[in-house]
Design the sequence.
């Protein structure tokens, strides 16, 4: 991963700016373009597309510890999602990273700010590619544009669920248009743009890649968007999931372990890739999940909560030992053990370079699609006996070792199944929102754990104070912060 340089497209070209107000406006990585003017060739545009993935991948915290100098991409997402649910917590209550599980995040939280800025970096890189799409070879223009829009939708879907109304920017921002990045658009408007971007991906892309945007990735993400948006479209989501299933391009791995340690396998639809041992292309969150024998820079993160353990004991089946283990002082996540780990050794080992881990971030996999298909058919009801829904639900459970086919799918059962199947994959918080039970579940969890700071406003993170300050007051704050 290269260090980022931030460049702003002016009227006749791209010029470098160093002022704080220009940060994150129209960034491009120095790995994506080395000229000082604009994209000139098809190769430049393709490099710009790849640069969008660099922004999603983020910079390893171990290679660049100063968070103000390098964005982390999706590497901090577990804090903003898993650790804000009943799934996990940090091993201590110290520092801003521990604020997520205790519901004490404030507008100055550096990790929340980083996620906000990282996703806008993705968006603005996508917008830069779209600005120069005519430079690409005519045969590639449609696919490059669809890929950039898919990634823009990916980022906006993160932002709108975490922060609510957010600035909606779909073109390069010139110096006289900076108000665009500080004007919050209504959630419904953001969702409309996400849907439009993903629909283009569905129409244009193919399934030739798992580590780049694909037709199935656009279909699956769009299905989740349609069920999450203010007015759900369950019928549309069901059709999209059915199309992925009928394509025959994906299947469940027979061994649950292989989903995570045989990367880009038959079950993976879209994943963000990392490279083990390469400080420029690796991730460090895997090492932060260790606690008893600490491998990360800080105390353990994503420590498993007891009530999740109870669900694993009830319906985890063969997924349990792949998902977490009893490390002594804590229950640690094992879905993302750094390469070379051996937790059966005495003492356990975590490989030669745990802080430079290569575990991919799985964005979408086939089991998720099967469970979404059941969810779309359920369509917000409490129960369905529809055979297609039951078959999809049962396929996931059968892989876990449960042979008895249920006669129906219930809303509570499906949410519990998703919790266990997708634990630690940054899905639980978004699932609770989509199922409409986030406040009820998290209120009960906070009461159980003694987190007195929780209230419903915590379902939205605060808009970062830095962004509000840069806007001169134009950017408003979420209620209660």
Sequence:
């Amino acid at each position: 991963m290269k260090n980022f340089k931030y460049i702003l497209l002016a009227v006749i070209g791209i010029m470098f700016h160093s002022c704080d107000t220009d940060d994150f406006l129209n960034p491009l990585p120095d790995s994506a373009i080395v000229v000082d003017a604009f994209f000139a060739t098809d190769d430049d545009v393709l490099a710009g597309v790849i640069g969008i993935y660099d922004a999603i991948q983020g910079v390893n915290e171990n290679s660049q510890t100063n968070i103000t100098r390098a964005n982390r991409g999706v590497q901090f997402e577990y804090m903003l999602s898993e650790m804000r649910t009943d799934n996990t917590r940090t091993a201590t209550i110290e520092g801003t990273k521990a604020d997520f599980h205790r519901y004490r995040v404030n507008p100055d939280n550096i990790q929340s700010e980083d996620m906000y800025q990282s996703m806008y970096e993705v968006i603005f890189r996508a917008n830069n590619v779209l600005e120069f799409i005519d430079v690409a070879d005519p045969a590639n223009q449609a696919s490059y544009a669809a890929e950039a829009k898919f990634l823009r939708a990916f980022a906006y879907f993160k932002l709108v669920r975490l922060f609510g109304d957010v600035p909606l920017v779909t073109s390069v921002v010139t110096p006289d248009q900076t108000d665009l990045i500080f004007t919050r658009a209504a959630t419904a408007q953001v969702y409309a743009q996400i849907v439009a971007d993903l629909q283009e991906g569905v129409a244009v892309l193919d399934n030739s890649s798992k580590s780049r945007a694909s037709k199935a990735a656009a279909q699956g993400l769009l299905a989740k968007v349609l069920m999450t948006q203010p007015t759900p479209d369950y019928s549309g989501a069901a059709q999209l999931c059915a199309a992925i299933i009928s394509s025959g391009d994906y299947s469940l791995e027979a061994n649950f372990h292989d989903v995570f340690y045989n990367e880009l396998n038959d079950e993976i639809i879209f994943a963000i890739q990392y490279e083990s041992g390469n400080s420029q292309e690796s991730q460090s969150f895997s090492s932060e999940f260790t606690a008893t024998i600490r491998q990360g820079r800080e105390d353990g993160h994503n420590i498993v909560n007891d009530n999740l353990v109870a669900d694993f004991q009830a319906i985890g089946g063969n997924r349990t030992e792949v998902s977490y283990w009893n490390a002594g002082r804590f229950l640690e996540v094992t879905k993302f053990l750094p390469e070379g780990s051996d937790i059966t050794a005495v003492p356990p080992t975590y490989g030669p370079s745990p802080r430079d881990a290569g575990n991919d971030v799985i964005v979408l996999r086939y089991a998720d699609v099967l469970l979404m298909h059941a969810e779309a058919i359920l369509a917000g009801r409490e129960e369905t006996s529809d055979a297609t829904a039951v078959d999809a639900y049962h396929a996931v459970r059968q892989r876990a070792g449960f042979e008895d086919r249920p006669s129906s799918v219930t809303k509570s059962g499906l949410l519990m199944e998703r919790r266990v199947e997708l634990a630690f994959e940054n899905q639980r918080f978004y699932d609770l929102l989509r199922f409409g039970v986030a406040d009820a579940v998290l209120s009960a969890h906070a009461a159980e754990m003694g987190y007195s700071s929780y209230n419903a406003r915590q379902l939205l993170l605060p808009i970062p104070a830095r962004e509000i300050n840069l806007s001169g007051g134009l950017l408003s704050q979420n209620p209660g912060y």
